[in-house]
Specification:
There is one protein chain. The chain contains no helices and ten strands. It has a five-stranded antiparallel beta sheet, with no helix packed on it. A five-stranded antiparallel beta sheet has the order 6-7-8-9-10, with no helix packed on it. β1 and β2 form a beta hairpin. It is globular and about 40 Å long.
Length: about 120
């Protein structure tokens, strides 16, 4: 979620897998300026209840979001955020360095010292 302007946020839904006590992503939804675009497993795309078909190598503009499928990742790109999903369990949320975020994509607090947030451990 963008904490400064609140122009976008990402919602994910998990589903239990066939293995006991494990789960994986089943849907990823980007809400951009109040408009939802949902990507489901199997590369299904839902836009206000309408199925959007996208083939490998295609790019489609939906509202102010660019949807691309390269055969490996489904990508949603806006001027503020980009999502890259492998359709199973790996979601990459990309934002500019000066964007303040929280939640799924972690806390990216602009201007804070990074000391103490990341520590390198030594083997004894």
């Amino acid at each position: 979620m963008d904490t400064k302007s609140g122009i976008w946020f990402v919602y994910v839904r998990y589903q239990e897998t066939w293995q006991i006590s494990t789960s994986s992503l089943s849907t990823v939804t980007l809400y951009y300026k109040g408009v939802p675009l949902e990507i489901q497993r199997g590369w299904l795309v839902n836009y206000f209840g309408t199925k959007v078909v996208i083939q490998q190598g295609q790019t489609k503009e939906i509202f102010e979001m660019k949807l691309t499928f390269d055969g490996l990742y489904m990508k949603i790109t806006t001027p503020e955020v980009s999502l890259h999903w492998d359709g199973v369990g790996s979601l990459i949320v990309g934002v500019s360095r000066d964007t303040q975020t929280l939640g799924l994509c972690g806390s990216n607090k602009v201007g804070e010292q990074l000391r103490g947030r990341f520590r390198r451990r030594r083997n004894p």
